[in-house]
Specification:
It holds the Pfam family TrmB. With about 290 residues, this protein is an alpha+beta fold. It has 2 domains: about 1-95, Arc Repressor Mutant, subunit A; about 110-280, Endonuclease Chain A (Endonuclease, Chain A), CATH 3.30.870.10. It has helices at about 1-10, 15-25, 35-40, 45-55, 75-100, 115-130, 140-155, 185-190, 225-245, 250-255, 260-265, 270-280, and strands spanning about 30, 60-65, 70-75, 110-115, 135-140, 160-165, 175-180, 195-200, 205-210, 215-220.
Amino acid sequence: MRDVVEQLQRLGMSGYEAKAYVTLVGSGQPLNGYEVAKRSGVPRSTVYETLGKLVAKGAAYEVRGAEDATDYLPLPPRSLLERMRREFDDSIESLQASLPTIVAPPEAHLIHNLKDAGALLARAEDVVAASHTDLFLSIWPEEMKRLSPLVRRAVGRGVDASVMHFGPAEEVVGHLYEHRFSTPDVIMENLGCRLLVVAADRREALIGGFLGGSAWGVYTEDPAVVLMAVEYIRHDIALQIIADRVGHESLREFWTSDPEFTRLRAGRGRPAALLRAAGCPAPELPAG
């Protein structure tokens, strides 16, 4: 019952209204105000006001009871949910038309920090859910479990999703490429944490890192940062495709022996230090 009350509150009912409605639904027969107060925990001093609000919303009906008293019946749950869905959809459509007309041009591109795993993943979900045309992700299995349903929905509505996945994927969504050159354990050793990059519609991006229970991240609409995030993922995907086409051993030979590649790899280990300085803790090393 507590969960149902909380969900009804999220959809616009007050706590008392939700408790009274759930009590009416669970009774199976009309109830008067005294009975609703006794069964629901709504104070007797406010129960009739609460029931009146439910009636005004169409979530309950007044009926004549014994001795011409007023009893109350609930709107059936299926009808209530359909009504709430219609009202919610109508509000969204109205806001989609009206909100953009009052938005002031930003004086600076939006950017904000994310301090924990919950906030980071919730913001990543926002980015994926808001995508309309294209979506780029560089992601590890731990985070993909949370984002996969939203990515699947995005693909279902026509979004072109490109996913760079570190390790085997439980489910292939969009254009998914497994990062095998270099292997995930080598990447983890170099970076020091699981890096998450999400970019949508070339207009917003999220970059963060996870290690154990700790996380850090940043969200931005800065076009330069968004461009770099998209190109980072595109080039990583391109390297995986090249490795598959020419052979991993051949590419690895170039990677380890060519002087230009050697020069580019000279900074190996620095990303981990920089990320740790930004808030991602150092990985725990095995004893000995």
